[in-house]
Amino acid sequence: MEIKDPAKWIINESGLEYFLKNQVTTNFQEIQFNKTFRKIGKYNRKLPREAFYRKLLNGEYKYRDWLLYSKSQNSLFCFYCLLFAPCKTKFSRSGSGYIDWKNCLLNVMNHEKCIMHRESVRIWYSRQLNNPNCIDNSLKIKIKKEEAYWVKLLHRLIETISFLSIRGLAFRGDNQMMNSKHNGNYLGCLELISKFDPFLASHIDKYSNKGRGNVSYLS
Fold it and tell me: 119, 165, 209, 215 — which has fewest CB within 10 A?
């Protein structure tokens, strides 16, 4: 198995065991961006370097260590979703990966915020917790607390999504700002629930309306 090329990974139990002990990242410096051009519509487009970094609120940039580049397929993969996503995403198509350079920046950002990505990350950490060779006890305790937090949040988000879907109601409004009268049914429902749910109220207060670069998983 070629470890540096996610398009050639063999996803079986022995492969998963290896990746649980060895998280793979792409060496940004090794990518030859001038050789990543693809014909998209009328134009030739190349993989944007900016896709590998997320701008934080303080102006600093954080490297997206989960985003992997396949040289053989000239495509991108999500490390966590390729291994553990319950359903395939744009970034976990085995053997092919993501190739739409035109919408790359937007789709990378949206993928990072989506529930499927978060669930894949949770599964990866959960599997590590159950493997005595992967992680020390102090980190296990920290991860368990983090996992419990996001599981509680996911339950609330999934129930809200299910409620709106069953009734055929639109999710989005004119904006995605909390406490706005025009933020749509989804965020509106979360605001209503938070009035009676201290956990959700605390999460909204901590993460909502923080600006681009902050991931709240509310939208």
Answer: 165
> pLDDT 10s per residue in the chain (219 long)?
688 899 999 888 888 888 888 888 888 889 999 999 998 888 899 999 999 999 887 778 899 999 999 999 999 999 999 999 888 889 998 888 999 999 999 999 999 989 899 999 988 888 877 766 665 556 667 777 888 888 899 999 999 999 999 999 998 888 888 888 888 999 999 999 999 999 999 888 887 765 444 445 565
Q: Phi and psi of 166, rounded to 5°?
A: -60, -35
CA angle 214, 205, 149 (to 5 degrees): 75
